Amino acid sequence: MPEIMLKGYKCSRCGHTWIPRDGNDKPIVCPKCKSPYWDKLKTIFNKKR
Asked: Would you say the pTM of this structure is higher than 0.90?
């Protein structure tokens, strides 16, 4: 049986993976958590006291 590879996306914030309906444009937000920063790693800042 032949294998098919599909292009999908993964949210860096919540870990949700999805396949877009139209593969032409990059998604603006994650469909699950609605974060516009789904493709950027979450940075942790150290608070200086």
From this structure: no
